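PROTOCOL LOG
Step 1. Enter all chains and additional molecules of the complex.
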Amino acid sequence: QVQLQESGPGLVRSSQTLSLTCSVSGGSIISRSHYWSWIRQPAGKGLEWVGRLYASGSTTYKSSLNSRVTILMDASKNQFSLRLTSVTAADTAVYYCARDGNVGRYAFDTWGQGTLVTVSS
Amino acid sequence: SYVLTQPPSVSVAPGQTARITCGGNNIGSKSVHWYQQKPGQAPVLVIYYDGDRPAGIPERFSGSNSGNTATLTIGRVEAGDEADYYCQVLEGSSDQVVFGGGTKLTVL
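Step 2. Run joint prediction.
Step 3. Record the structure below.
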């Protein structure tokens, strides 16, 4: 059974770059049946999709974040990462990595436990 | 951009049926997925492709989608169903994943 685990700094200074890693266990990140996303959730608010990575390495990002976000694959480590530049307090959230494609496209059936990132001034 | 509208809250007595709606322009033409999220936990997929259930999700959970409204129905509601529920679709024209604002289900 595939498991996901987020890791990275819990505190990032405003205007700096947020970097997180999602480690995938129990399955291969280069499986052509599966896709990998980052989804975030500010405290007390709803879910917001950030972007998605395909086995080919290609990506799709939320339009409003497109200029600041990069998602990359490290197949050798079975990991994928999130990089968000020029962060502000509005980027403070719990960040989840998630998988889709197992039961259906864009149906996120596997999630990490989430990691809280706080942007400080 | 595509907007999904959910009621902020729904309340239901134990044993009754809860219906949570998700409104969107011609949402019936899209595939809708539903998630349950309990406090401090990651979301769990409970319905995909409008009405299919992942393994391990009770048959009490069902979904429908037509016109401008998708609905998650939870039959014989239990205290353990109390959670936030989110609908989600893909806006195909721009390849964007969109979530509804979430509905807090309270079991009275």
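Step 4. Note key features.
The CA atoms of residues 61 and 100 of chain A lie 15 Å apart.
Chain A has a mean pLDDT of 96.
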